[in-house]
Amino acid sequence: MRTVIHSVHELDAFAKSFAKTLAPLPDVATVLALSGELGAGKTAFTQALARALGVEEVVNSPTFVLEKLYALPRGSAFEKLVHIDAYRLENEDELAPLGFDTLVADPTNLIVLEWPEHVTRAVPAAARALVFAVADDGSRNISYGA
Predict the structure, then answer these.
(1) Which bin fits 39, alpha (ψ -120 to 50), beta or left (φ > 0)?
(2) Residue 65: strand, helix, or coil
(3) For residue 100, pLDDT beyond 90
(4) What CATH number was assigned to the domain covering residues 2-144?
(5) Spans of all domains in the chain
(6) 3-state secondary structure of 43
(7) What mean pLDDT is predicted for residues 100-128?
(8) CB 146 within 8 A of CB 66
(9) What residues have CB less than 8 Å from 140, skipping those under 6 apart?
(10) Which of 43, 53, 55, 137 lies closest to 86, judged by CA?
């Protein structure tokens, strides 16, 4: 599927709609793998998704800290939103200090992984890929599986 986003309002609406399609997997975390060039909208989408899931605190890119954890409100399908930015990582081994294997093993986690191409072997087979691209008119194209 492909969605074209022209404004923050449209991104919020898309994230809210997309959030409704998310459900925990039985044995592992649900992983969203966000790819796209710098400035394509990966973090903006994560921020909109977090708002849609009820996160009230400010969600910033974890580029330098690599990982941020957000508790989700009671009654949510997931207990935690885990935001990981692998932009500065050279390989999958650098995810180990974050406890990545433990995070992925917990079906109550929703993991948003930016720059999955930097840690390809660590991305679970069941991950949902979203690809962000900037169009010539400045809009954002988001391609994803159903």
Answers:
(1) left
(2) coil
(3) yes
(4) 3.40.50.300
(5) 2-144
(6) helix
(7) 97
(8) no
(9) 4, 5, 11, 40, 41, 132, 133, 134
(10) 43
User: Residue 54 in contact with residue 76, Cβ under 8 Å?
Assistant: yes
13: number of Cβ within 10 Å = 15
d(CA 146, CA 3): 12
Amino acid 108 reads: T
Helices (H), 25-145: 42-53, 100-104
Beta bridge partners of 67: 84
Say which amino acid occupies 110: L
Amino acid type, 68? K
* β-pair partners for 3: 142
Encoding tokens for residue 62? 């974890």
Residue ranges of the alpha helices (H) in the chain?
8-19, 42-53, 100-104
**pTM of the prediction?**
0.94
